Amino acid sequence: MSTRAVLEVIALDAGDAIAAQAGGADRLELVTDMAADGLTPPVPVFAAIRAAVGIPLRVMLRLADGFAADDVERLVRVAGDLRAEGAEEFVLGFLDADGAADLAVVERLAAVLEGCRWTFHRAIDRAADREALRKQLDGLPGLDTYLTAGAASGVDDGLPTLAAEAARSGEPGYEQRIMVGGGLRLEHVPPLRAAGIDAFHIGGAARPGGWSGPVCARAVARWRSVLDGE
């Protein structure tokens, strides 16, 4: 395929970011505390990573594990602090008790981000109704990506859903790019590319030593090579 696929890599610090960029990552997702599935990094960590690399950075906006918004006022302040430090892209996603998008929180954060581009993360995989969630969020300023495995259990089970959603690209609620992540393996790439998906997100796959070790440029380069069809 002629379109270069986007490769996004999770980075916890400047060392991760430098290695990911060296391996061919197009973009980084910045988080801290992977034991809690990725929370908002401190502003100084964002600043250090921003100074270390030249590729786009998407910063997680989440203060506690899970998909319910926690301390919304603090979350709004943190988003404002990151914006003031120069953050221009973000990742967020919250559900209410019924499994629908927590529109009040998402809309408030979108307003703080003032048109910055952002990803709705894997909360979509826990939604009671994926299509209803997409319709809820349709038209929100800045939303350009859904990070999803297609299923809460991961890409193995989500492949049919991902292919079906990719086939609806351009329809209302389906204009956003699908970025696949969550149990993603290299063997998934060919069928996903064949379905028209052109964005991929890796975390543990970039760390041969596990989450206790750093991002490995060679591991990222392997993904870059496969995505480029080499």
UniProtKB/TrEMBL annotation:
Entry-linked InterPro entries:
CutC-like, CutC-like_dom_sf
- Where does the source fall among the domains of life? Bacteria
- How is this protein named in the record? Copper homeostasis protein cutC homolog
Q: Whose protein is this, by species?
A: Streptomyces tropicalis
Any Pfam family the entry gives: CutC
Q: Which family does it belong to?
A: Belongs to the CutC family.
